[in-house]
Design a protein that fits this description.
Blueprint (H helix, E strand, L loop, with lengths): L3 H13 L9 H12 L2 H14 L1
Length: about 55
């Protein structure tokens, strides 16, 4: 897990560069990339399992 100071630095740098959105951290970026490749029904099922168990 990233510490909050690092996340804030990344967010402020992105804000300064006028970026609309940013994904901080390689694991989060990998998750976003994986979501683009998986079907929506699989995404919903996984999110439901995580919310129930997690």
């Amino acid at each position: 897990m990233m510490d909050s100071a690092r996340v804030v630095r990344i967010a402020l740098r992105a804000l300064h560069r006028r970026r609309g959105s940013i994904v901080a951290g390689w694991l989060n970026a990998l998750t976003v990339f994986g979501n683009r490749l998986s079907p929506r029904c699989a995404q919903r099922a996984l999110a439901g399992m995580l919310m129930r168990n997690g």
